[in-house]
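Troubleshooting log. The previous run stalled partway through. Resubmitting the same four chains, unchanged.
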Amino acid sequence: MIGYQFMGKMHSHAYRDLPFFFDPALKPSLKAISGRDEEAVKQAAEIMGWESYETDWRRLIDRKDIDVIDIVTPNHTHAEIAIAAAEAGKHIISEKPLALTVEEAEQMYEAVQKNQVIHMICHNYRFAPAVQYAKKLIKEGKLGKIYHLRANYLQDFIMDPSFPLIWRLKKEVSGSGTLGDIGAHSLDLARFLVGEITEVSGMMETFIKERPLPDAEEGLTAQSENSEYGEVTVDDAAAFLARFENGAMGTFEATRFAGGNRNKNKFEINGSKGSVRWDMENMNNLDVYFADSPPGLQGFRTINCTEEEHPYAGAYWPPGHIIGYEHTFINLMHAFMEAISKNEVPVPNFYDGVINQRVMEAVEQSSIQKKWKNISV
Amino acid sequence: MIGYQFMGKMHSHAYRDLPFFFDPALKPSLKAISGRDEEAVKQAAEIMGWESYETDWRRLIDRKDIDVIDIVTPNHTHAEIAIAAAEAGKHIISEKPLALTVEEAEQMYEAVQKNQVIHMICHNYRFAPAVQYAKKLIKEGKLGKIYHLRANYLQDFIMDPSFPLIWRLKKEVSGSGTLGDIGAHSLDLARFLVGEITEVSGMMETFIKERPLPDAEEGLTAQSENSEYGEVTVDDAAAFLARFENGAMGTFEATRFAGGNRNKNKFEINGSKGSVRWDMENMNNLDVYFADSPPGLQGFRTINCTEEEHPYAGAYWPPGHIIGYEHTFINLMHAFMEAISKNEVPVPNFYDGVINQRVMEAVEQSSIQKKWKNISV
Amino acid sequence: MIGYQFMGKMHSHAYRDLPFFFDPALKPSLKAISGRDEEAVKQAAEIMGWESYETDWRRLIDRKDIDVIDIVTPNHTHAEIAIAAAEAGKHIISEKPLALTVEEAEQMYEAVQKNQVIHMICHNYRFAPAVQYAKKLIKEGKLGKIYHLRANYLQDFIMDPSFPLIWRLKKEVSGSGTLGDIGAHSLDLARFLVGEITEVSGMMETFIKERPLPDAEEGLTAQSENSEYGEVTVDDAAAFLARFENGAMGTFEATRFAGGNRNKNKFEINGSKGSVRWDMENMNNLDVYFADSPPGLQGFRTINCTEEEHPYAGAYWPPGHIIGYEHTFINLMHAFMEAISKNEVPVPNFYDGVINQRVMEAVEQSSIQKKWKNISV
Amino acid sequence: MIGYQFMGKMHSHAYRDLPFFFDPALKPSLKAISGRDEEAVKQAAEIMGWESYETDWRRLIDRKDIDVIDIVTPNHTHAEIAIAAAEAGKHIISEKPLALTVEEAEQMYEAVQKNQVIHMICHNYRFAPAVQYAKKLIKEGKLGKIYHLRANYLQDFIMDPSFPLIWRLKKEVSGSGTLGDIGAHSLDLARFLVGEITEVSGMMETFIKERPLPDAEEGLTAQSENSEYGEVTVDDAAAFLARFENGAMGTFEATRFAGGNRNKNKFEINGSKGSVRWDMENMNNLDVYFADSPPGLQGFRTINCTEEEHPYAGAYWPPGHIIGYEHTFINLMHAFMEAISKNEVPVPNFYDGVINQRVMEAVEQSSIQKKWKNISV
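Second attempt completed without errors. Output:
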């Protein structure tokens, strides 16, 4: 695994818990992590249970005892690492967004295809049991023809103007801002549940244009009074309208400026026969409506998706004993291990990463040019 | 009052209840209603408590004992009636949308200005105590600088393809479809709470393009097997992105194809200091978030707006004893009567009707031309 | 109508609105109200639309042009008035609780039976469409055998120790406190929905034992610094366990000391085939669970009881356009008028008042004697 | 660890995850588990990560390399194991309820005191961050004087009459039924948050008195058509009223017959200054009301307890990224390890087990004798 911050911790945890809950065909073996700061990476390896560490990611790729490369570094490094890993014949799992640009993403996809390695992208929200169950209902036609998807991903953690200029707010490191970080999740859920998008019209905004530079010594959250300021070069918020190939209408909004919404990742889908609603802050529940319920008895029912019938849920606790955010990653890693064991490419993979990147690029272009943009598929 | 269907019943009720709950400077006197079907209008007058009736609306305008004309007819008749009423020196209250086109709306506004009559448009949702209280919080700066408004108005009553081609689905009678009928309410709330809109990008769709013609004899809901079909000439659903004069971003969606949502008119507004959320299906409640609540104690609080502090609520029942949809109209009529008694023009009025019409026209144009459109103010 | 405070206003409104929404066989004619303060009763008559007023309730009973006596006075006067009215052959509708004691209640019931007048008691919550629909589901066996009812009625309006010693806090005027005022409503709903109660174990408490006397001149809410104090002689809170005749278990709690709950009157009923939940603060909704929903799709569905299928709801607005507290009274008055027109005794009536009183007396006795008490039926 | 079913899995997981999230002074080392079925216990050890296994729990107690005994066996074995472990000088953590009877519980408590070992009882719900935060608010006086606690623990997993007669339904193995299994949790939360209980009045019921015997070969869920039946000797549902030492009133209900409630463990507490509400099915949230919020802005606020300020939450994911049921155990084990490292007895411990047992015994007695019972403390 390359990188060991928030997502590194999350992935490590998922690998550890996977064999406990499931009976995977392949059990992940935590060989090594890499990071540039030796002291920090050494400590991380110890706490998170990795056998060894490296201070240069290339060493990981050279090692013969490593079959899988897990990329949890800042976005601008994904392409170089993934391509090197693919060429070394390693299977790859990468955090999202796949790359800084469509071009980079396409090169990555080309590399994994050419070298015939298994590849996956970490859109973990697909793996909430409630979302998987929504997919099942849609696939079985229980919602009928889909008319609408409306998706919001609302956060508020950078609303304070004194919040520092972290790497996620710099275009050269992160590629995009809110759109690529959280909007990408909504987009991926939409494609998973409703289908491909053919055209978009976008609107993007940076509300706070300058922020104090992070104080390197003291870390991200402490700024001295005399902080210098730097320019925020990504979007604080993005919204877009979309049309799906199947005729459905989509509305999307992603923002880090929606006070009171810590991590509100939610969607509603309406079809000719029924509707579903989901909200990550209450991720075990799925609200479901069926138009053919008897008159007088029609209404959204709230299903606590913690039963055998709900994908992945049976591996955990008895009905009503809820699971949390981390389980989306355990489930995802389960799908990844299953895929490797069968030598099949799982979904979502680098292809999805490419398409998501294309849609996001179209949203950006549309926002600048003030007109609708088609997505080339 | 001209017209006596759903909205006619609603307005009549509001006039009757107004003096019971408030102590208005002017008490409405229910002089006469008009409608073309003598039998029906006679019966309506009796049930709803009108002293007399007419079968030609022009007779109402001619009558000296009538000071106020209330227009609750289908949209294509608003302009002619309103202009005639204004020229006769009557005060006017009209259902929304004001007219079929911007041009018609402007002529109506010109007429009321020229003849110096009081005028109002029935955007009743402004008058829910919770909405009025949200306005108060915003006006007092409690939410700070506004970043976002997201508004949805979701219904599902025409999802059945056998639902007939009523007048609301014909452009020549209604002007527009979902956008003008319910999207107009979201738009009006947005302008009331956040301010003027400067540009929009829209998307509109008609999912069911042909419907059975209503059987004139049997009324709206019964179609014979051999029904003939007619073309639906308005939108079933509309969505648009908007920028406000003050820099806020707006996202809007109105649809009659969101199964399970009978009348879900809701919005959320996020500002630098706080947020509010409201949903008409639970109209007494306002969710409020303040960013300056102590750490650990931050969260949306649900306020049951049934107390003295909440505008209009004090006139009704003790705290916690909720009011319903009809009270938005009683409150609106109270504002109208107060305005007449003070010889002041209330809000929202025909000016708001004109601006709303301009925004909706820009949404339609934008949807056709696939690019952003400015709103001229 | 005798009395003209909160409930007087409510009843008057219901009479006025009844013919507007329904097409009643009998239309109420608002003949006269009575009250001791001439100035106040005169003004009340005018605002609320009564033709005349009296300052002695006996005059109302003497009047030949009056067929129905509506009792909305403090509880200690109910018996005398009702008995006099019955003897004069008037139909009677009385606010709850019926009387101060079981004995009084029985005398009242005897009087209406002997004189063969129509009688009703104002347990209005039975008449919420959602509650009526719950009754329908239970009656049709949709919930199967009933195992549990849990009912809470939570308020908070007297939590401030400076809240004055109003009549509702004095046993000689009100008979009981929270139990009789709001616990009686829960009890009535329980009997309506589940059946008769055979035994109870109660617990009652007065948290604030002395309160400032109301300043007669200035009204209820203003106390001078030098207020004298008086003893609170009723319960602030009451809870009880109950067994129903059909084997179900009941738990009840009523309090005016549940901060944040303005008027939270709610219940849940669990049966072998399904469950229902209701909450007055969101009175249009009924949550319904069916055990025979397909595995994976089981959950409480939220029904907005505003459709034709929901009792009384069809008389008001289109689906999703909610009604409020006052509609429970309009519906109740409709049932009363229908009953008079058919010369049938409606439910709930004085018999229910007697039984409710017996249960409450058993709760009080049980609380004092610290043991279970049987209810004699 | 002795036992390896549901709770064994849960405890094992907690030990594994503890050092990953926290930096505990003592890291648990998973030495050995015991169980009677060698094949099964061997497999469990492997999957759950235990170094070795035994088929007789006495061997575990004899082993020198084991410092802590974790008891997750059926209730009737707790006492014997715990006393033996205490005498061998092992620290002990036991599942609840502590024992079959008060007497047994007292013997266990005596043993741990005499042998001066650290002891804890697994009332895990205390360790939800939202519950810990509620405790903090109450301790700091933020809710003022406590007037009410109402607690429900509602399940529905044995409503089907064909559900077999598992050990939890037999008094000789489990001691009590719903009361001891889930009512004990509500009781423990009440004592943690409000204080000691001085008297109770209870009501208990067994709705389904006979059930098919489990088919030993096929496990718990499969019964053959020819199943023999056995008597259910514990309660299906229990409710009780309680008075707390500090004057507060408590109402409790625990049932496995509340259809639609899979695991609804919830409570509300009302004090003179504020209220809190919590529901395990949405365990990250705490609803908080403060009576001193400005007029007009009073209402329950929903706090997503996933922030640094919320006890234990900081060890996991960023704000808004929810945790699940298993984290209550990780937190509990953290408290246990901290206690051992400091040689202090943590809470809740065997003393709490004894008191909880006394209250439950009083509830049972009260239910039989039909009168209130005092709790001796």
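Takeaways: The mean pLDDT of chain D is 95. DSSP finds ten helices and 16 strands in chain D.
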